[in-house]
Amino acid sequence: MNSVSVTAAGSFAGRTLIILNPHAGNDDEARMRRRLGGAFAARGAAFDLVATEHAGHATELAAEAARLGYRAVAVCGGDGTLAEAATGLAGTVTPLAIIPRGTANQVAQNLGIPRGLENAVEVAVSGVVSAIDLGRINDRAFALLAGAGYDAAVMQSATRELKERWGFGAYVYAAVKEALTAGPRRFRITADGRDIEVEAVSVMVANVGELFAHWLPIRFSLAPRPTSAWRDGLLDVVIVAPRNAPDLAAILWRSASRRVAGSERLLHFQTHEITIDADPPIAVQVDGDPAGMTPVSITVMREALRVFIPA
Hints:
Elements: E1 16-20, H1 29-42, E2 47-51, H2 57-68, E3 72-77, H3 79-89, E4 96-100, H4 106-111, H5 117-126, E5 128-137, E6 140-142, E7 145-149, H6 150-157, H7 160-166, H8 169-179, E8 185-191, E9 194-200, E10 202-206, E11 210-211, E12 220-221, E13 235-240, H9 245-256, E14 266-271, E15 273-279, E16 283-286, E17 289-293, E18 296-309
Parallel strand pairs: 1-2, 1-3, 3-4
Antiparallel strand pairs: 5-6, 5-18, 7-10, 7-16, 8-9, 8-15, 10-13, 11-12, 13-14, 15-18, 16-17
């Protein structure tokens, strides 16, 4: 961790490692460094700060911080950076603190982490630690969800340039753009030993209970009990299979009404592990970041990550 300034004595036990994604948010890196440093210093909290330099860097930094015995790792970035850090911290005793700076910040919204920097740092310094589940896809952990199909196409279309220019509007644009060409695919799914074949536009595997918290006047549920989805030891699988525009509208209404079961066009079940394949192969996303193509295997890791939440 040669890019982190450390104390001469090499003591990390009382320090927080801040991992900053310099490309997230609208503030420039120098200003964000000053704001973060001032917020931690004002609370008498010792810290080291390092910026990510490439994809996967947050995983490396978080794993090293856990090995060195840091008090905590604080991620200042979006859901993708958070997922990388969670991969490095999964199964360790080092807790994660979240300082939202991305476009959607859905993990923070679901956990009740404040969006404002000062209040988020207060949680990082004085909050309580709670264990949550994680999903694992290939060698990567995720806190929010993984998906194959339409949702992954939307994430690919919502490029960094669009998000920097339009913020959350980039996702709206991408959703409309991809909806014009989205069509059903034949999915082959194996979940806890059960085989399923279905024509669908998207298969989502969620660790979190809701999407689009804060950004829209309604929240779209991915689990029957959103507030407990984080720590139930199960993944919520949502299969979206509309035949036409009215079907899609009905699906959105059911989800917003927290009725994610009981419809042949919106299928829901829970599982410990799942394999998803499609013919032809289709794009996959993890916590908003592109993650290759099907087939993929996903498992749940029970209470694998310790996270600071408001006291």
